[in-house]
């Protein structure tokens, strides 16, 4: 007697479809997070010895930009899911910022975590929220985010 494989229940099918749809909303922030992780965890020995631009605290500008962009990409998916877009984007970005700085401290022997990096990340997040509210909401380019 052969036992036929059980088909997934309707609830499971619905859950997987919803999860796939949710992941599609977040493809941009996930891709940007991968790029951010690469930038944060690249060994210091692979960074240029001579800076491309001679700008004081250039690394803080990079941190600001990475998390500004991450937060910008997170607002719209959270809004689509009818969650508090600004709050969830900010909390997610700041928590990821702290987590990545902590992991960088634990794993990297050539890079160090820094409270000023975290402050630059947080400033980028808050600036992204302001930018999104002032320049993106209800504009024709909002779907790009």
Polypeptide structure, described:
With 145 residues, the protein is mainly α. It has a domain at 59-145. The chain contains five helices and no strands. The longest helix has 23 residues, at 58-80. It is globular, with a radius of gyration of 19 Å. It starts with 9 loop residues before the first helix and ends in a 10-residue tail after the last helix. 21% of the residues are buried. The mean pLDDT is 85.
Oligomer, anyone? single chain
Helix-and-strand structural type? mainly alpha
Which sequence of SSEs, written as H and E, runs from N to C? HHHHH
Could you give a short account of the major beta sheet? Answer: none
Per DSSP E runs of 2 or more residues, the count of β-strands stands at 0
Separation of the first and last Cα atoms: 55 Å
- The helix tally amounts to 5
Look at the structure and give the mean pLDDT.
85
* Strand coverage percent: under 5%
Q: What radius of gyration results from the CA coordinates? A: 19 Å
Low-confidence stretches: none
Percent in helix: 55-70%
Specify the overall morphology.
Answer: globular
Write the layout of secondary structure elements.
Elements: H1 10-25, H2 27-41, H3 58-80, H4 85-107, H5 115-135
